[in-house]
Amino acid sequence: MARPGLFGHQPFWAKRLGVAPFLPRSRAEMDALGWEACDVILVTGDAYVDHPSFGMALVGRLLEDQGFRVGILDQPDTSSAAAFQELGEPTLFFGVTGGNMDSLVNNYTSDKKPRSDDAYTPGGVAGKRPDRATIIYTQRCREAYPKAPVILGGIEASLRRLAHYDYWSGKVRRSLLVDSGADLLIYGNAERALCEVAHRVARGEHPRNILDVRGTAVRRPVGPGGPLDAPPGTFVVEPSDSVDVPGPVTDVPSPYLMEAEIRASQGPSEGPTKAELVQLRKARLRHPRDKVILRLPSAEVVKEDKVLYAHASRVFHLESNPHNARCLVQRNGDVDVFVNPPPLPISTAEMDHIYELPYQKVPHPAHQGQRLPAYEMIRFSVTIMRGCFGGCSFCSITEHEGRIIQNRSEASILRELSAMTSLPGFTGHVSDLGGPTANMYRLACKSREIEAKCRLPSCVYPDVCDNLNTDHTPLIQVYRKARAIPGIKKISIASGLRYDLAIKSPEYIKELATHHVGGYLKIAPEHIAEGPLSKMMKPGVGTYYRFKRLFEDYSKAAGKKQYLIPYFIAAHPGTTDEDMLELALWLKKNGYRADQVQAFLPGPMSYAAAMYHTERNPLRPVDRSSETVAVVKSPEQRRLHKAFLRYHDPKNWPLLRKALVRMGRHDLIGPGEHQLIPRYDPLSPERPPREAKENRSSGRPSSSDSSPSRKEKPLLTQHTGLPRVPRGRR
Q: Is 504 within 8 Å of 464 (Cβ atoms)?
């Protein structure tokens, strides 16, 4: 039987109660609404802002639109269960998330140092959400109301739905669904799954028994019966080497054997050859895709075997297209974790409805009058699309939101912009029209049939796919109509720009440079050396030069002096000291000075995190003789790679001087224009007489150098792959 669409469900009975001014976060607010209970209580690590860029506001208003009474516990005190009893016991379930950002990314820098601020907390203060917030919140919900079901969501849960490498502990951890003890996990864009699950729970089903919803992960005890308790013969469980062959597994028990089979084996034996496994894989492909469940190596096996971890990561990413992905299952201790295929993209009409729900567009009254940095950043911005088909290996957007772009209609965007002009504090400046990327609006595969079959991780690497529509005309039209709205004076574009796509549409670059750049435009080449770029899945520096030339030409034609601010990543897998030296020399030659630098952070379940942990390249087939990847792990080498990006900082000169000597590059130490750093120690009381000249030639910053000269441009470098202010993430 076909499932109803997102808004095709019969509304829950509480629909008659109408819309709450704000989702209640206290018993007094519930009483004022006349509610004796909440149907769903959302628990989040962010302060509650009733704006669709904040995930809990978005899903809360969506559930309200479905007829449910929704309460919210934002940044609850986790020292006891008392704060989790504030709204009483939910009639249906708790919905738990760590917030718009992963709690560990939010709490720590890429060097594992505690952050001093939190953009999602009133006053910007740190420490209002615990580490591994999803686990802690789930435990407190259980303590408060042991019988209440708990459903996980948000980016923290989404990127930990299977066994994953955890950078902060340096270990492979089990699925978050298992470690938290929750009943169900919803990953990715949650709307379809959440609405279906909520209505089924309202009809009496328990979340742990809802096994067949796309975009969910469930755990089942290991035992007799077919997969997902389906009738015998309904599904076929195949080992993941039917997708990708990891090669002979000599002296290691097969990760696909059940425990009884391992015990029955007679000691280690040589596994099948790679050719035999290829033939076995071909034989297994006779089953219909939608009837196959792929069994990944267990959490215990991938914890001990890095090659099989890289193999599992590769299979996970190959099974990411919602049109052809298969269900995955992985043993985690004494349970199997089943991950259903990704959710189907929402339609334009559905997305319009979601973003035009009755949001107040301001923080909850309890937080008003307090500074909320994340809100200030997105307060006057509009989300126009979701998803990203770039596939950058270090980024988590594709794993979370998917690579198929989901768009709002032009009319819906313009309606939101028109309404924005009457918001308190609006001065005429729209801070952004975008999403995960600035310029993928309405870009898609030219063929639905090809899109449904494609299993490539990126539509733009190693080059822009011939089947990809790169026409930016619909986006240009949105920009032009938006500028014509009375009350709007300026529209900036702050979302990340894919310049490899932009050069396919020079008219878009002209529009951008003429109307939507306020002096500086941030783009992300990430590096210039082919080694790291090939591991990042980013275009070569030649593409950057083509964009730069077009941008400068159109800026000049518009009578504007505008500069590009390129972002770079330090210490990414595949990067050597020589690569960073090459980048430092490029920066100096082009007059760029990095103001902020952040080293690579291995986000859970990303391709790059798998490279970092295993030192293998899962972008290609993985076996025990496959390509190894240079990985920067020691604190000393990570500091060096960051120092290369800030070659102009005197504090880094001793470290760089030592490295250059070790690398045999004495020729780069001195006062010449072609040299990277001076000879003298900036902390030494004795300076050579040519100090002033060396200061100038080395690019040493001075207190008066506050604006970019013709050759020196500011550069803000930060990249984690997990944006500080994600748009509408669940």
A: yes
pLDDT in tens, 540-569: 999 999 999 999 999 999 999 999 999 999
Task: Mark whether 550 and 521 lie in a shared domain.
Answer: yes
Instruction: Give the span between the Cα atoms of 657 and 135, in whole angstroms.
Output: 46
- Same domain? For 208 and 228 the reply is no
More confident position, 117 or 696: 117
339-364 pLDDT per residue, tens: 999 999 999 999 999 999 999 999 99
What whole-number distance in Å separates Cα of residue 316 and Cα of residue 240?
Answer: 9
Q: Is the pLDDT of residue 259 over 60?
A: no
Q: What is the pLDDT of residues 358-408, one digit of tens each?
A: 999 999 999 999 999 999 999 999 999 999 999 999 998 888 999 999 999
| pLDDT of res. 494 | 94
Q: Are residues 401 and 513 in the same domain?
A: yes
Cα 184–Cα 173–Cα 126 angle in degrees, nearest 5? 85
Domain span at 560 = 380-649+701-716
Place of tokens 């490029």: 586
Q: Residue 564: enclosing H or E segment and its boundaries?
A: strand 563-568
Q: What is the CATH number of the domain that holds 124?
A: 3.40.50.280
Do residues 185 and 176 touch, judged by C-beta distance below 8 A?
Answer: yes
608 contact partners, CB below 8 Å, separation of at least 6: 393, 394, 535, 536, 572, 573, 600, 602, 721
363 within a domain of the structure (yes/no) = no
We report the CATH number of the domain holding residue 596 as: 3.80.30.20
Question: Would you state the structure tokens that stand for residue 235, as one six-digit string?
Answer: 């599904």
Q: How many residues does the chain have?
A: 730
My answer on whether 532 and 457 are in the same domain is yes
Compute the average pLDDT of residues 60-69: 98
Q: Examine the domain organization and report whether 310 and 389 are in the same domain.
A: no
pTM listed for this prediction? 0.89
Number of neighbouring beta carbons within 10 Å of residue 307: 21
- Asked if the structure places residue 685 within a domain, the reply is no
CA distance 525 to 540: 8
Own/partner contacts of 195-201, CB < 8 Å, gap of 24 or more, are 195/6, 195/9, 195/62, 195/63, 195/66, 196/3, 196/9, 197/151, 198/12, 198/39, 198/40, 198/63, 198/66, 198/68, 198/92, 198/93, 199/9, 199/10, 199/12, 199/66, 201/92, 201/93, 201/149
